Amino acid sequence: MIRTDFTDDAAWREVVAALARTAEGERDWESAAHLVEDRRWEGVPGDLALAAAARDEELGVVFLADDVTMRSPLRPLLALDLGADDDQDLDPVYYQELIDSPPPREVRVVPDAVHMVHGNMQLANVDFAEFVEDAAADPDGVVRDVTAASAPAGSGSGG
Description:
With about 160 residues, this protein is α+β, with helices and mostly antiparallel strands.
Protein backbone atom coordinates (compact mmCIF):
# COMPACT_ATOMS: atom_id res chain seq x y z
CA MET A 1 0.00 0.00 0.00
CA ILE A 2 1.43 3.31 -1.09
CA ARG A 3 0.49 6.55 0.63
CA THR A 4 0.16 9.26 -2.02
CA ASP A 5 -1.69 11.84 0.10
CA PHE A 6 -0.11 13.39 3.17
CA THR A 7 -2.85 15.85 4.14
CA ASP A 8 -4.37 13.88 7.04
CA ASP A 9 -2.14 11.85 9.35
CA ALA A 10 -5.10 10.78 11.51
CA ALA A 11 -6.85 9.30 8.46
CA TRP A 12 -3.65 7.45 7.52
CA ARG A 13 -3.41 6.01 11.03
CA GLU A 14 -7.05 4.83 10.74
CA VAL A 15 -6.24 2.98 7.50
CA VAL A 16 -3.14 1.36 8.99
CA ALA A 17 -5.06 0.37 12.14
CA ALA A 18 -7.86 -1.16 10.05
CA LEU A 19 -5.31 -3.22 8.11
CA ALA A 20 -3.77 -4.44 11.35
CA ARG A 21 -7.20 -5.36 12.79
CA THR A 22 -8.15 -7.46 9.78
CA ALA A 23 -4.77 -9.20 9.79
CA GLU A 24 -5.20 -10.09 13.46
CA GLY A 25 -8.82 -11.23 13.05
CA GLU A 26 -10.19 -14.72 12.70
CA ARG A 27 -9.89 -14.84 8.92
CA ASP A 28 -7.62 -16.98 6.80
CA TRP A 29 -5.74 -13.99 5.33
CA GLU A 30 -2.15 -13.56 6.33
CA SER A 31 -1.09 -9.94 6.14
CA ALA A 32 1.34 -9.39 3.32
CA ALA A 33 0.84 -5.63 3.46
CA HIS A 34 3.92 -3.56 2.86
CA LEU A 35 3.32 0.07 3.76
CA VAL A 36 5.11 2.71 1.71
CA GLU A 37 5.03 6.10 3.42
CA ASP A 38 7.51 8.12 1.41
CA ARG A 39 6.84 11.71 0.33
CA ARG A 40 8.39 10.95 -3.06
CA TRP A 41 5.04 9.27 -3.82
CA GLU A 42 3.03 12.36 -2.84
CA GLY A 43 0.47 13.23 -5.50
CA VAL A 44 1.50 10.37 -7.80
CA PRO A 45 -1.56 9.42 -9.89
CA GLY A 46 -2.77 5.85 -10.27
CA ASP A 47 -1.37 5.33 -13.76
CA LEU A 48 2.18 6.29 -12.72
CA ALA A 49 1.96 4.19 -9.54
CA LEU A 50 0.70 1.31 -11.66
CA ALA A 51 3.62 1.63 -14.06
CA ALA A 52 6.13 1.73 -11.21
CA ALA A 53 4.59 -1.18 -9.30
CA ALA A 54 4.30 -3.29 -12.46
CA ARG A 55 8.08 -3.72 -12.42
CA ASP A 56 7.64 -6.16 -9.53
CA GLU A 57 6.50 -9.40 -11.18
CA GLU A 58 5.38 -10.83 -7.82
CA LEU A 59 2.68 -8.19 -7.33
CA GLY A 60 -0.81 -8.72 -8.66
CA VAL A 61 -2.44 -5.69 -7.06
CA VAL A 62 -1.24 -2.49 -5.40
CA PHE A 63 -3.29 -0.19 -3.16
CA LEU A 64 -3.01 3.60 -2.98
CA ALA A 65 -4.00 5.69 0.00
CA ASP A 66 -4.83 8.80 -2.00
CA ASP A 67 -6.85 11.99 -1.51
CA VAL A 68 -10.15 10.08 -1.79
CA THR A 69 -8.97 7.70 0.93
CA MET A 70 -8.15 10.56 3.26
CA ARG A 71 -11.41 12.51 2.64
CA SER A 72 -13.96 9.69 2.75
CA PRO A 73 -15.14 8.30 6.08
CA LEU A 74 -14.95 4.80 4.53
CA ARG A 75 -11.21 5.32 3.83
CA PRO A 76 -11.46 3.43 0.50
CA LEU A 77 -8.10 2.61 -1.01
CA LEU A 78 -7.57 2.64 -4.76
CA ALA A 79 -6.74 -0.92 -5.85
CA LEU A 80 -4.80 -1.14 -9.12
CA ASP A 81 -4.68 -4.38 -11.11
CA LEU A 82 -1.15 -5.19 -12.20
CA GLY A 83 -2.18 -8.36 -14.02
CA ALA A 84 -3.94 -6.52 -16.84
CA ASP A 85 -0.59 -5.99 -18.57
CA ASP A 86 -0.67 -9.68 -19.48
CA ASP A 87 -3.07 -8.72 -22.28
CA GLN A 88 -0.63 -6.41 -24.12
CA ASP A 89 0.60 -8.99 -26.62
CA LEU A 90 -2.76 -10.37 -27.69
CA ASP A 91 -3.23 -11.25 -31.34
CA PRO A 92 -5.83 -8.81 -32.75
CA VAL A 93 -7.15 -11.50 -35.09
CA TYR A 94 -8.53 -13.44 -32.12
CA TYR A 95 -8.77 -10.89 -29.32
CA GLN A 96 -9.89 -7.62 -30.96
CA GLU A 97 -12.90 -7.27 -28.66
CA LEU A 98 -10.70 -7.53 -25.57
CA ILE A 99 -8.18 -5.10 -27.07
CA ASP A 100 -10.96 -2.59 -27.87
CA SER A 101 -12.57 -2.94 -24.43
CA PRO A 102 -9.84 -3.66 -21.91
CA PRO A 103 -10.86 -4.86 -18.45
CA PRO A 104 -11.04 -2.30 -15.63
CA ARG A 105 -7.74 -1.63 -13.88
CA GLU A 106 -8.90 0.05 -10.69
CA VAL A 107 -11.52 -0.21 -7.98
CA ARG A 108 -12.05 1.24 -4.49
CA VAL A 109 -11.59 -1.17 -1.56
CA VAL A 110 -12.33 -0.49 2.10
CA PRO A 111 -9.35 -1.27 4.37
CA ASP A 112 -11.15 -4.24 5.95
CA ALA A 113 -11.27 -5.94 2.53
CA VAL A 114 -7.66 -5.33 1.43
CA HIS A 115 -6.35 -8.68 2.67
CA MET A 116 -9.31 -10.52 1.12
CA VAL A 117 -8.76 -8.85 -2.27
CA HIS A 118 -5.00 -9.39 -2.15
CA GLY A 119 -5.32 -13.02 -1.07
CA ASN A 120 -7.83 -13.87 -3.78
CA MET A 121 -5.73 -12.13 -6.43
CA GLN A 122 -2.60 -14.02 -5.33
CA LEU A 123 -4.44 -17.35 -5.43
CA ALA A 124 -6.24 -16.44 -8.68
CA ASN A 125 -9.55 -17.32 -7.00
CA VAL A 126 -11.23 -14.16 -8.23
CA ASP A 127 -10.63 -11.95 -11.26
CA PHE A 128 -10.10 -8.25 -10.70
CA ALA A 129 -13.19 -7.65 -12.85
CA GLU A 130 -15.28 -9.56 -10.29
CA PHE A 131 -14.19 -7.12 -7.59
CA VAL A 132 -15.16 -4.26 -9.92
CA GLU A 133 -18.61 -5.86 -10.30
CA ASP A 134 -18.92 -6.19 -6.52
CA ALA A 135 -18.09 -2.50 -6.10
CA ALA A 136 -20.61 -1.54 -8.78
CA ALA A 137 -23.31 -3.38 -6.82
CA ASP A 138 -22.32 -1.72 -3.52
CA PRO A 139 -24.24 1.44 -2.56
CA ASP A 140 -20.94 3.24 -1.84
CA GLY A 141 -19.16 1.83 -4.90
CA VAL A 142 -16.53 -0.05 -2.88
CA VAL A 143 -15.40 -3.62 -2.36
CA ARG A 144 -16.20 -4.90 1.11
CA ASP A 145 -15.24 -8.14 2.83
CA VAL A 146 -18.68 -9.77 2.90
CA THR A 147 -17.34 -12.76 4.83
CA ALA A 148 -16.53 -10.46 7.74
CA ALA A 149 -19.98 -8.87 7.67
CA SER A 150 -21.88 -12.14 7.39
CA ALA A 151 -19.85 -14.28 9.78
CA PRO A 152 -21.19 -14.40 13.36
CA ALA A 153 -18.79 -13.09 15.96
CA GLY A 154 -16.40 -15.75 17.16
CA SER A 155 -16.94 -18.12 14.24
CA GLY A 156 -14.12 -19.30 12.03
CA SER A 157 -14.24 -19.68 8.29
CA GLY A 158 -14.77 -23.41 8.60
CA GLY A 159 -13.01 -24.34 5.58
